[in-house]
Prior knowledge:
Layout: H1 2-10, H2 13-20, H3 22-44, H4 51-57, H5 68-85, H6 88-109, E1 115-116, E2 119-120, H7 121-141, H8 146-162, H9 168-186
Antiparallel strand pairs: 1-2
Helix pairs in contact: 2-3, 2-6, 3-5, 5-6, 5-9, 6-7, 6-8, 6-9, 7-8, 8-9
Amino acid sequence: MQGYIFLRFLFLGVPVLCYYDKGIALLALVVLFVLFSVFEFSRFLGKSLDEKIRKKYFFFLVPIGEKRIAKLLYLTAALFIVVNFFEKDVAIFSISVALIYGVVSLIFNSFAKVKIKNNTLEGIIAGIGFAYITGIYLGNDLNLGQNVIISSVIAAPLTELIISCLDENFSVPFFVAVAAQFVKNSF
């Protein structure tokens, strides 16, 4: 679990790259997508990567477990779509808010008690709180209004709770970006 949370934090580099150049962020996401696809494809073939190779070159994937690589693949695909098709400020903001919400709710889910679907009440509340704090700082820097901040922060848990047909690693960043873009263009 710790390796998975660590990798989710590393994805916060995507908004930083996007701030400087969208092309570099897209290239980094394509490289990650190909890397995770190779790992996932090798898992489907029943061939696990040699432990020595994994420990030497891909040490960051060792504590994750191979089933979580598919979740990272979904996350990479969602971030690629958000960076490519949404405005730059909305992409930076929504990716940051979605990742902070996801990481904080994962951390709080490990010791929480009140279950709601695949999440917990404590994880949802903590995720909303940290995402809102992140949203205030980023929203002010990117000149996004309070409406965009609130709609994005509320879109993250609602997407996670309501949409069950898509993986949450794909749906949360995507629908947070949709909510942010819609509110930014509407109000």
